[in-house]
Task: structure prediction
Amino acid sequence: MDAAYDDPIWASIRAEAEEAAEQEPMLASFLYSVVLYHKRLEDALSFILASKLESTTLPALTLRDLIGKAVDSDPDIGVAIRADIDAFYTRDPACRFFSTPLLYFKGFHAIQAYRVAHYYWVQHRQPLALYMQSRISEVFAVDVHPGARLGKGIFFDHATSIVIGETAVVGDNFSMLHEVTLGGTGREAGDRHPKVGKGVLIGAGAKVLGNITIGEGAKIGSGSVVLEDVAPHSVVVGVPAKPVGQPAYPLPALEMDHRIKDAAKGETSRAQEQSPS
Result:
């Protein structure tokens, strides 16, 4: 338990799992196998991902070894895992516990599986990384190329039919909903995908195409098609997307307010209320 005390998020997850096992005995075996038998968050996550992504080609034990090697070799993955859990907890009103994304949210699972695939891509093990990408897409309906670069504090809400291309770059504290594409225009080679600044919020069904820049703190409306650069701290909507104003908050991704007219300035956000001190 010492490791848990040194890791507040993991300690919270363990406490929540213990309480849930008492409240719902039918789930006790599940909760012990995926959380309470493990000493670290990384170990629990590797068990969960391996059980979901296993195949005849890469059985669960092999996947656990691969995931464990990645997280142990790159401490930044562990930092990102915790930032992502906090992002889900503070930005999704349906997420009332730190354990919920780890146990049940495929958006969180897909992001963490991408992080492992990206590790092997950077290690020049491209066939393995591409195999993992294919398997992640089959299981979670989220297709993130392992060559893409995602920051930490990433939130995919619902996370079905998400596509992120090979040369896309996404900054920290980024949020988007289902059916979003960060893709190419189909005419370019090389560096051909969007570069997204920190704190950006993208609504459901939006398509952001080409080697364009989405500035820090921008917001893209649901269903929009973005083909040109978006200025920092601006709101764009439409097909093609056009500027319609500015968000009320510096980093819209933290607020998850998709209305064109943002909440009045000075309103306390759920992220501000729930983010750990």
In short: The two ends are 22 Å apart (CA to CA). Residues 262-277 have pLDDT under 50 and may be disordered. The chain has two domains: 6-141, 148-277.
